[in-house]
């Protein structure tokens, strides 16, 4: 890597490596330390993140070829750079940031915009998930196809986050501040010192508490359900019924940590869960194989490793064709 003009450019490069999931463990530690050093640093990171997730959404929505689009932008910027005196060589990573800045102008010109208003900040993910830190340092992990918004000017005084759609895992911090609330349409999830997972679809809302407590409140009917660790809160949008039960899904956080626990689970269901988390299709060849039961604990960053363990456990074979895995009897 070439020398940077300033430490700021080094951090820009590390941020881009992080967003591209190519950052090394040592660089990741440096970046995390820099982010925690000041709110200004975290704001810079969030600006990069907002560009990243919204560009993903734009390309997904309009069907553009991301790589070719970057190449076109890169050529344009390179041509423009020839007309400007250069004091020193900049790294390719720093150059990519200027490409991103130029891409924002292209995004605006085609009618797509980042959803920032005078009051709210809206963050949406495309085909990939992301995580952010709110102004109070609460961490929010967003699954793919998820949108949230919050009042960026007065969040500390009114800690209210709105989940518009999708799935989030929230680890609330700073419990001495006003109570943290998640707005979910007809109901609210009120934090009582906790971490919890929320899924919101057009027909239902599911809340699973990992630690602490969450109060699900339904103001219109003056109803409240208190959730403790291991409990699942359910709200039916159509019937307006709010209820609580035990959480029977040990893999509700697998979309974040890729940790799976299967106890006599049919391979068809296993394949469905893995496919959703790793974003790759898995085909099971044969009904008998679909019903074969798997008992295993999986914790792998790549689907290749998980499939290898399944194949060995169930004595079957797996072939990868393009982006699809086909599992069949040996």
Automatic annotation (TrEMBL):
<dbReference type="Pfam" id="PF16344">
    <property type="entry name" value="FecR_C"/>
</dbReference>
<keyword id="KW-0812">Transmembrane</keyword>
<dbReference type="InterPro" id="IPR012373">
    <property type="entry name" value="Ferrdict_sens_TM"/>
</dbReference>
<dbReference type="InterPro" id="IPR006860">
    <property type="entry name" value="FecR"/>
</dbReference>
<keyword id="KW-0472">Membrane</keyword>
<protein>
    <submittedName>
        <fullName>FecR family protein</fullName>
    </submittedName>
</protein>
<feature type="domain" description="FecR protein">
    <location>
        <begin position="122"/>
        <end position="214"/>
    </location>
</feature>
<dbReference type="InterPro" id="IPR032508">
    <property type="entry name" value="FecR_C"/>
</dbReference>
<keyword id="KW-1133">Transmembrane helix</keyword>
<feature type="transmembrane region" description="Helical">
    <location>
        <begin position="96"/>
        <end position="115"/>
    </location>
</feature>
<dbReference type="GO" id="GO:0016989">
    <property type="term" value="F:sigma factor antagonist activity"/>
</dbReference>
<dbReference type="Pfam" id="PF04773">
    <property type="entry name" value="FecR"/>
</dbReference>
<feature type="domain" description="Protein FecR C-terminal">
    <location>
        <begin position="259"/>
        <end position="325"/>
    </location>
</feature>
